[in-house]
């Protein structure tokens, strides 16, 4: 749960959750929502991550560790969050469009390199 991570980071850094919100220019009422299980939007997550010097993945409990090959795995959910934050009006068709466009650009670059 987001609040647990947020609360731990506050404790580790010697600030109260309300002080962290004030410092990040986030409504202090957000803390009550997070305690009930809500997750902040992408902009708010970015502000908090910057404040504590961590990644948004860390805040969400999704911190990835490197694979034996040294690369981290990146899921479709990671990609969707990176592109659209926690927007709920994005679906798999939108993600497929982005993937097709990325493939198109990759192929175009290959052709231009020849």
Protein model, in words:
This protein folds into two domains: 59 residues, 434 Repressor (Amino-terminal Domain); 38 residues, no CATH class. The longest helix has 22 residues. It is an all-alpha fold. Helix content is 63%, strand content 0%. The protein has seven helices and no strands.
Q: Give the low-confidence spans.
A: none
**Main sheet: strands, sense, barrel:** none
The tally of strands reads 0
Radius of gyration: 18 Å
Shape, please?
elongated
Return the string of H and E elements.
HHHHHHH
Mean pLDDT, all residues? 83
Please state roughly what percent of the residues sit in beta strands, choosing from under 5%, 5-15%, 15-25%, 25-35%, 35-45% or over 45%. Answer: under 5%
CATH architectural arrangement of the largest domain: Orthogonal Bundle
- The residue fraction in helices comes out at 55-70%
Q: CATH top level of the largest domain? A: Mainly Alpha
Q: What name does CATH use for the topology of the largest domain? A: 434 Repressor (Amino-terminal Domain)
Q: State the separation between the terminal residues, measured CA to CA.
A: 50 Å
Determine the structural class based on helices, strands and strand pairing.
mainly alpha
Instruction: Tally the structural domains.
Output: 2
User: Number of helical runs?
Assistant: 7
């Amino acid at each position: 749960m987001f609040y647990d991570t947020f609360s731990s980071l506050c404790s580790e850094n010697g600030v109260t959750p309300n002080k962290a919100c004030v410092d990040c220019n986030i409504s202090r009422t957000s803390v009550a929502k997070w305690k009930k299980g809500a997750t902040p939007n992408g902009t708010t997550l970015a502000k908090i991550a910057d404040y504590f010097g961590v990644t948004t993945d860390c805040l969400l409990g999704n911190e990835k560790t490197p694979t034996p090959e040294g690369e981290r795995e990146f899921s479709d959910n990671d990609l969707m969050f990176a592109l659209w934050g926690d927007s709920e009006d994005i679906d798999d068709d939108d993600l497929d469009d982005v993937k097709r466009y990325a493939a198109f650009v990759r192929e175009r670059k290959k052709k231009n390199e020849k």
